[in-house]
């Protein structure tokens, strides 16, 4: 009888240890954010704790790493993917969020683009930048697919933070890049999931920071909400109400590069109307 009891106790203890071990080894979803100043949270003072990637991770309990750098273009991101630290994270990731493309325009002579758009009414330069972006994005996806073909890649659309004449220039640039994102999706079905960040942010000017370039703290919450809705639909998240552990503090800038661009664009628009009164 003692022998039977001893055997039963051993079995129970073994099962208990197995259950505890299995529970301990249950891993969280790895969520990796790649991109530019938008993903970095540059419209806020406390970028690390309040950016949308952190909100998404906190809401769904993901393991989270953010490898975004302000000012980078799609070409720079392509190079980053080949570094050891980022490559390791991408290999481990189950979900990858990407925000890239805006700097392809902002760092390619914004004044010349504004002249093209508002004065000469030509879009050749915009098209060239968009085509380069498309080629580089294809390469980005080739690298990601090679490193981790099973990862779900969330690609964010671009928004337009500007009003007036500058809004015409920014809007055209963003539309061109969004067309390239949709082109990639159409030509490579199932490789990316488009997250309509542009559509969500453009609905309210309060979603943009004082610098007229980046999402505000509210804007970061809107992006997080948009991503959470997509993840829920994909069965990769259980919650759609953002959990904000750190309240975002907006960056306050009474005057900025974007305001100067807006003034310049207004002058150029007036000049364009004089030269080309019929558009």
Summarize the structure.
The protein is of the alpha/beta class and 279 residues long. Helices cover 58% and strands 9% of the residues. The chain has helices spanning 2-25, 37-40, 47-50, 52-60, 74-80, 84-92, 102-106, 110-120, 124-147, 164-187, 197-201, 217-234, 257-275, and strands at 30-35, 63-68, 95-99, 152-156, 193-195.
Summarize the structure in words.
It is built from 13 helices and 5 strands. The relative contact order is 0.15. The chain has helices at residues 2-25, 37-40, 47-50, 52-60, 74-80, 84-92, 102-106, 110-120, 124-147, 164-187, 197-201, 217-234, 257-275, and strands at 30-35, 63-68, 95-99, 152-156, 193-195. The longest helix has 24 residues, at 2-25. It is an alpha/beta fold and 279 residues long. Mean pLDDT is 89; it is low at 11-25. It is globular, with a radius of gyration of 23 Å. A 5-stranded parallel β-sheet has the order 2-1-3-4-5, with helices on both faces.
């Amino acid at each position: 009888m003692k022998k039977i009891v001893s055997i039963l106790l051993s079995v129970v203890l073994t099962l208990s240890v197995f259950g505890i071990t299995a529970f301990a080894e249950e891993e969280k979803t790895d969520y990796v954010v790649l991109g530019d100043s938008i993903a970095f949270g540059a419209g806020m003072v406390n970028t690390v704790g309040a950016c949308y990637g952190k909100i998404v991770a906190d809401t769904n309990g993901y393991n989270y790493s953010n490898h975004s750098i302000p000012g980078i273009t799609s070409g720079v991101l392509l190079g980053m993917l080949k570094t050891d630290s980022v490559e390791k994270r991408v290999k481990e990731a189950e979900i990858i969020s990407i925000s890239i493309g805006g700097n392809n325009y902002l760092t390619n002579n914004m004044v010349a683009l504004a002249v093209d758009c508002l004065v000469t009414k030509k879009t050749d330069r915009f098209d060239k930048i968009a085509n380069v972006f498309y080629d580089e994005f294809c390469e980005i996806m080739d690298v990601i697919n090679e490193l981790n073909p099973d990862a779900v890649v969330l690609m964010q659309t671009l928004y337009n933070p500007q009003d007036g004449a500058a809004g015409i220039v920014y809007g055209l640039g963003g539309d061109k890049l969004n067309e390239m994102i949709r082109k990639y999706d159409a030509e490579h079905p199932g490789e990316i999931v488009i997250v309509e960040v542009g559509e969500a942010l453009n609905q309210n000017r309060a979603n943009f920071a004082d610098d007229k370039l980046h999402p505000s703290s509210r804007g970061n919450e809107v992006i997080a909400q948009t991503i959470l809705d997509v993840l829920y639909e994909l069965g990769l998240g259980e919650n759609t109400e953002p959990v904000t552990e750190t309240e975002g503090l907006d960056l306050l800038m009474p005057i900025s590069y974007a305001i100067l661009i807006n003034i310049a664009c207004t002058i150029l628009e007036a000049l364009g109307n004089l030269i080309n009164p019929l558009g």
